[in-house]
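Model: You mentioned two targets. I'll fold them one after the other.
Researcher: Yes, keep them separate.
Model: Target one:
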Amino acid sequence: MVARMSPIYELSETALMTILLIGSATAFFMGLLGIIQTDIKRVVAYSTLSQLGYMTVALGVSAYSAAVFHLMTHAFF
């Protein structure tokens, strides 16, 4: 949704910074939660959420093609 509404977000530096901070926090905290899990299904789930955080960071820095590329490659693996 963020990628589709990118022309609106490009008008506001605050909106892009908010997206960047949310993505960074998501990537960091989900990575930490994934490290402490013992169940493999939970590890995979938290790893996927961490990758979604990285994609959100890419959207926050206006690297839309990188975010969509990361989404597509993550979907195939």
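Model: Target two:
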Amino acid sequence: AMYLFNCNEYLETAFAAMKLRAIPVNVNYRYLEDELHYLLDNSDAEVLIYHGALADRVAAVQPRLSNFKLLVQVETDEEDRVPAAPGAVGYESLIADNEPAARIERSADDEVFLYTGGTTGLPKGVMWTQRALFSQFSAGYMPLGGFVPSTPEEAADAAEKLHVLGAAGPGLAAAPLMHGMAWFTSMSKLMTGGAVVSLAERSFDADEFWQAIQKHRVGMATIVGDAFARPLCNALIAAEERGEPYDISSLGVVVSGGVMWTPQFKQPLLDRGVQMLIDGLGSSEATGAAMMVSTPGDDLSTARFQLSPNTKVFADDGREVEPGSGEAGVLAIAGDALPQGYYKDAGKTDDTFRVIDGVRYAVPGDYARVEIDGTITLLGRGSVCINTGGEKVYPEEVEETVKLHDAVTDCVVVGIPDDKWGQAITAVVSVDGEAGAVSSEIIALAKQKLAAYKAPKHVVVVDRVERSPAGKADYRWAVDEAKRQLSID
């Protein structure tokens, strides 16, 4: 298990585990003792590689775990230093004191565990085989005309050709590596012979991001929606206004996934020379469900997600949703490269990985409408769908509208208990400046843009909307905060 901030040791550990035929497991570095204990116990972890600044949490859970065979501490700066967990060995010492392991035969069916964020329930370990996972990385070989290597020798040759073509420049994952997209895209970059740049700060710093792009001539960066794109655009513009613009001429592609990325935080990047923005739709359980690609000159106001060939949209009764019907359905992703299921949760595995008409699909729970042209409008995750007055409302649709208000800097929409409506739609927002009349303005704006029943009944203003380090909304926190401010038990 990898309980680490972004650092070289994270990726080194992931690859080392694979070479040992062990199973790498991601751990959220924000987890405190009970959360950490749950994940380590649930995953049956026997080895924990952790950052020295987190040693006190490791020491606290150590007596409650019987599986541990080895604790490895990654050294830290003096100001972070806390006493090492009992029995832990130093990461660099472990390397220095041991000879390289002998080469062994490995299997493409060896596993990688990707634990979900747990923003709507307990984290679950998604079991990927290396065969399925690494098949997702073939896009990195597109400059070679679709050739995908099948042997180590071919992989080395392909990496050399990509460098000659100038297609293997450094990549930067702005999100924490314990987030699936950042981890997997970084592995993909290394698989094609490229370098991965990490940010040193433990909370996202947009200026550090742009400084790294400029210094290392990064060609591709990975972010997570507006939570990253908003501060990035603001920092770019602020640097220009100071007369100290960043040189981002090397940055050709920015990839996002996991949360909403609105046009207002795409356009500034395209205006400054980024050639392609890829807004991907996927999850811990399946990648590549749909994609929205934007390039300079595109009309971002009309952009829609294009379904991948392996993705369909099914109604709750199992029918395939007809384009233009206006009916909402759940995204289902087919193909050979799907996870095996959830570790130690057969019931949830059967619910998410379904066989429909003889085809196995991953159905993570994202709902969408299929438009007449075959594109989709994403509605949101069914598990956070709000039932208000007998109508279903998906939070992301309302969140996108609320964010159009000039004063709103972030927003999460939830349903809270209500005697009349069952659930009352409530926008939890952070604003720039004084709250003032922002609540009534947000409700009026929503009624202009959406059906009236989708407009918030309440607006709750907070200093900061809580999100995971990867930018995912914390819906449980938002419900609790809304109920607290509105005095609802």
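Researcher: Noted. Anything on target two?
Model: The mean pLDDT is 92.
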